[in-house]
Each structure stands twice: as structure tokens, then as C-alpha cells.
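Handover notes (outgoing to incoming on-call)

Open items:
1. Peptidase S54 rhomboid domain-containing protein: sequence verified, structure written out, both below. Nothing else pending on this one.
2. Nothing else urgent.
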Amino acid sequence: MLRSSLWRNVTARISNRIPPQSPFRRYATQEHQAHQPRLHPVRILGPTLWALAASGSIYLGCAAYEVYQDVQQFKGQVGTVSYNSIDATRQIQGVLRSPATARFSVSDIFTTPWARLNSAEAMLVTTGGLNFAAFGLQRLSSSTFMFFAHVPMYARNFTLLTSMFGHSGYLHIGFNMLALSSFGPALAATATFQSSGAHLAAFYLTGGLFSSLAHHISCASPIARMAAGRMSPGLGASGAIYAMVAAYVLSYPNVKIGIMFVPVPAVPALWSLVAFETWGTFFGWGGLRLAHAAHLGGLLLGAGYVHFDGRKRIWQPTRKFAFNVMRRMEIV
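Peptidase S54 rhomboid domain-containing protein C-alpha cells:
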């Protein structure tokens, strides 16, 4: 290592003193450039297809789980079990549960028995627990770190998903879980999610997955500042949290949200975040090392999901498909 470093320095200095037309100048320059670090290419097609397949599997799995639970719970109430009957009952139950879900707070995690939590509240508690468990595992065994971090130049697609459970430090996980507990309950109570833990879980996981993919794709850019990120591990739930924040703002446009604990009108705050992350993605913010593309991807996904009615266009068709498949398989 030392020897090759000395040789690179010598050839670089010699080449600067030799006329450009000299054959040795060309040799010295080529020898110097040969030792420059080369960034490995970042695959795009494979990770994108994997993310699409994984998100579809997540939504289908969550929908199938909820449909099965609904059938078991409601079949004594609705008579003949059909998709329309259990869906109507689910919507009524969601409306009734939403006020309690919106009031769910961090203190309720420690004071409410598990059996009394509705599905959305249980999902939020479970998500927080998984994040803290993964963080503890990283601290106990450093060898597990790379299972919870996504490095774009490595061919490991599964870390697009698992990286959302990894965190770099106590402040990192603390702020993310604070945001989850702040925005999660109110978002779960909206008309989009109707206190459905399965729907919220599918949205959360997909938000984290596609925000990781956005960061991955940005690292394939020829822009040197963005391309350098392909060698750095990306981790954290921030992308999924940003998706929840954007969905929350579009669901409650007249409220105020805290930006660094300062209350700001929700819609201007959202536009400010989009502008901040867009600039950070393409131009950076000095020494501020954040996965801006992941944050921007999460914001766009969350806003688009509510704006284009993801419940009607994605969740309900997936539930119906899952019900029909399970009916043919005689599971329900």
C-alpha cells in the first residue's frame, strides 16, 4: 500500500515536469490515473423490480391478514360472508375506533393492555419495538450492522427493506420514533386508513422501501456528489416517517406541525421540506450528511398516496383480490 502510494506521487510529480508531447508524460499520466479509485456501477433495474415485487407482496400479505381477521371476527355478525359485507362492517368499525386512535399517545403504550389496543395502535407499538430491537441488535453485535444498512454499490436488494429498521445512533432513532408516535396515531385515524393496522403497516413498509430505492437510484447519477453516496451505508426509518408526514399534512391541511419543535402551518411546512430535500438531493447542504433523495422519495410517495386516494385505488382492490383468492382456496 505504501509502495503504490509513493509510486503514484512520484509519477504525478514527474508528469507535471515533462512536456505534454513526451511519451513518458503519457505513460506517467496513465499510470497515475490507473490508481485512481473507480466507483462501482449501481444497478437500477434489478433493485427496482425487487422493490416492486416486495411492495406488492407486502400489500397482498397485509390485506390477506386483515381479510382473514375480519372474516373470523365478523362472520357471526353479517350472516352470509361476502367481501362487501365484511368491508362494510370494517368501515363502520374503523369510524368508531378512529377517535380513540387519534388520541393514542406514547404514555398509552405503557398503560394500555395489549388486548385493548386496536389494530392500528398495535401496529404502531410493534413498529417502534422492531426499530428498537434492531437498534439493540446492532449495538450488541457489530456484524449485524450491514444487514440493516443499504450500500447501493453492493448487490443486496433485501437491504432496501431492512435498512429502514437500522439507525446510526441514539438521536437518530429517538427523533424517528418521536415522529412515529406523533404523526402515526392521527394518520391512522384518517379516512384513508380508518384505524386499519394492516393498511398502515403496508403503507409504512412500502414508504420505507421506496425511499430507500430513491436513494439507491440517486447514487447512480453521474453527478459526483450524488455518486459518492453509492459507497456509503444508508439506514433509518426517516423515509417511511417522511411518507407519513406528507400523508398527514394532506389529510389535515389546516393544522400546524412542529419543525424543530416550532409550530408551523402544515402545508407551507410540507412545501419547505420538499424544497429543502430537493436542493439537498442535487446540490447538498455543505457538511450536512443526510439521505435527501430518500426523504424526498418518502414525501412524494406519502403525498401521492393520499392525493390519489390510495385506499380506493390500491388497498381496497388488494383486499378484494385477497378475499377472492382465499375464498377459492377455502381459507375463508
